[in-house]
Amino acid sequence: MKDKSLILLRGLPGAGKTTLASLLVKNRMLSCFSLDSYFTNEKGEYQFDYKRNHLAYKACQSNVEEAMQMEESIILVDQTFALLWEMQPYLDLAKKYEYQLFVCTVENRHNGKNQHGISDEQVLKMAKGFSVEILPEDLREG
């Protein structure tokens, strides 16, 4: 069996998830899937549309599953994953396709600002529900 890994990069907006993902992908043959790409137009401008948010989540999950079906060895997912249940579909996919799951929390230690126009108030609201410590029992078996 080929070693296969799914890496979930999680953190609040502005933490540096996308920057870290870019560094990891650079000069490597890795697949990286992000909700941001769903809201980025042809000019590279980010245009979030709350009404399409659920479609972005589904598209990201579908793209990850497609990559797993092709047995790509390392897959990165760049999302906030502020709430534990948001990770569950990926846990289920990792189990189904026999991928090792890694959850990496990216913290804002560089005083970065999010680039998507999310207000400081909204980030603080997200932070209150953000689970920093994740234990195996926090994630249900698929």
UniProtKB/TrEMBL annotation:
Tagged with keyword Transit peptide? no
Keywords on record: ATP-binding, Nucleotide-binding
What Gene3D superfamilies does this protein map onto? Answer: P-loop containing nucleotide triphosphate hydrolases
- Give the residue range of the signal peptide: none
Question: What's the domain of life for this entry?
Answer: Bacteria
According to the UniProt entry, its GO molecular function terms are: ATP binding
Q: What is this protein called?
A: ATP-binding protein
Protein's organism = Leptospira ognonensis
